[in-house]
Design goal:
Blueprint lengths: L2 H29 L2 H22 L5 H18 L5 H8 L11 H15 L6 H11 L5 H8 L3 H17 L10 H22 L10 H17 L4 H14 L25 H21 L5 H14 L8 H14 L3 H15 L1 H14 L7 H12 L3 H14 L3 H13 L3
């Protein structure tokens, strides 16, 4: 491959990463099947790889790809006369140059694709894989590497997800009314899950996978632009912006874990923090416009913002954070939120108060295999001078941690406790 071909190939890949979601969304609106739409989009990509080295990158590559995708759709539909009506719809406007789509149409199509890929009929893992594939522009191999599972497993999830959407005849649409709130929560959950896997990898040797954080943040920003009146969309975006600001400070050069209290806050990305504050303000304004209180994502963003405002760990307003957790646990009464609330209470009111709450969480049993429960308990016991008990908790926590960096941190903490 000569240098010109290599430049064109890189240009095609860059265009594909940007245009793929819009292309698949536009084709899905036409053919009514996201699986077929993705196949047509891939055909258009192959055509670009074949033709652009000779013809050059077109002035409007997105429109070029859409034209080729629609022509492929026409070819398929002509083979099945039962789709005559669809042929008429697809065939309109194919003579001459493809007109540039209206921005509103592109946004509507993207929003439909988001809600289809995150449909509750799919299992959470399938929603995540399909969203990364269709909206994140990731290959099956990319997703498999990110989640440390075989590529065949991811491929099966994606194929089954597309098949299930077709079998259930899930409409390519944005739901309305009461269904919108239910479906939106699924969409936000998928983006949140993608970010969390990048921020604190559940398995493997790497503490973080920043590329997944970047993909989730990009998706959140897209949603914010598409749904500016939804408070929780802005709340999630604010949370991810602020959390992303800490990525560079969360690990040592050798890959070791750096906890929040020990991070060099000079390495926090101030641009992302400012973007997070702006998104949080939008979430508050949107909620007030509806006469609503802040939702779970907005509250979590407010907690993250409290940390971001503190110049040092000692400056953290733990009483304010504990109050935010008091509000959050009413809306999101999960064991993990209860554990995080216990940490905030311990900082605001002392380790004994926090330990009492941790023991309540432990008594529930839901987190018996969650490594952070004994890890938090160990920290509070150590602060109370109960070192033998703390060491025992850390020794219990280490084998539960599936991530190698976290496991190493727990072992080191146990070794560092006074004898």
């Amino acid at each position: 491959m000569n240098q010109t071909d290599e430049r064109v190939r890189r240009a095609v890949e860059a265009v594909w990463r940007i245009e793929a979601p819009r292309l698949i969304a536009g084709l899905a609106r036409v053919v009514g099947d996201i699986g077929l739409a993705e196949d047509l989009a891939q055909d258009a990509l192959v055509a670009a790889l074949e033709q652009w080295p000779d013809e050059g990158v077109p002035r409007n590559p997105g429109a070029w790809l859409m034209t080729v995708g629609k022509r492929r759709a026409v070819d398929l539909i002509r083979r099945d006369q039962t789709y005559a009506r669809k042929l008429e719809l697809v065939g309109r406007g194919l003579d001459g140059d493809e007109p540039e789509p209206e921005p509103e149409t592109i946004e509507d199509d993207l929003l439909r694709l988001v809600f289809t890929a995150c449909h509750p009929v799919l299992a959470p893992q399938a929603r995540v894989a399909l969203t990364l594939r269709l909206l994140g522009g990731l290959s099956t191999a990319d997703i498999a590497r990110a989640y440390l599972v075989p590529e065949a497993t991811i491929a099966q999830r994606i194929v089954r997800a597309k098949r299930l959407l077709a079998q259930r005849q899930v409409p390519f649409e944005v739901p309305a009314g009461a269904q919108l709130a239910e479906r939106l929560s699924s969409v936000l959950e998928v983006v949140y899950l993608i970010f969390n896997e990048g921020y604190s990898a559940t398995a493997g040797d790497d503490w973080m996978r920043p590329a997944l954080c970047e993909d989730a943040l990009r998706l959140a920003r897209v949603l914010s632009a598409l749904m500016p009146a939804e408070p929780e969309v802005h709340g999630l975006t604010a949370l991810l912006e602020i959390q992303s600001s800490r990525v560079a400070a969360r690990s040592e050069a050798v890959g070791g874990v750096v906890l929040l209290a020990d991070q060099d806050r000079g390495r926090w990305n101030q641009l992302l923090i400012r973007r997070g504050f702006s998104a949080l303000a939008k979430a508050d304004a949107a909620a007030k416009a509806r006469g609503e209180a802040p939702g779970p994502y907005a509250l979590q963003a407010a907690i993250a913002a409290s940390h971001a405002r503190a110049l040092t760990a000692r400056d953290t307003d733990w009483r304010a954070i504990a109050g935010l957790y008091d509000a959050l646990i009413v809306l999101l009464p999960t064991p993990v939120v209860a554990l995080n609330r216990a940490v905030a209470v311990a900082q605001a009111r002392g380790p004994a108060a926090g330990l009492a709450l941790v023991d309540e969480v432990a008594a529930d049993g839901a987190l018996k295999d969650y490594h952070l429960l004994p890890a938090v308990r160990a920290d509070l016991l150590g602060r109370l001078g109960r070192y033998d008990e703390a060491r025992a908790e850390l020794e219990r926590a280490a084998p539960l941690a599936r991530n190698g960096a976290e496991r190493a941190l727990l072992v080191d903490r146990a070794a560092a406790l006074p004898q």
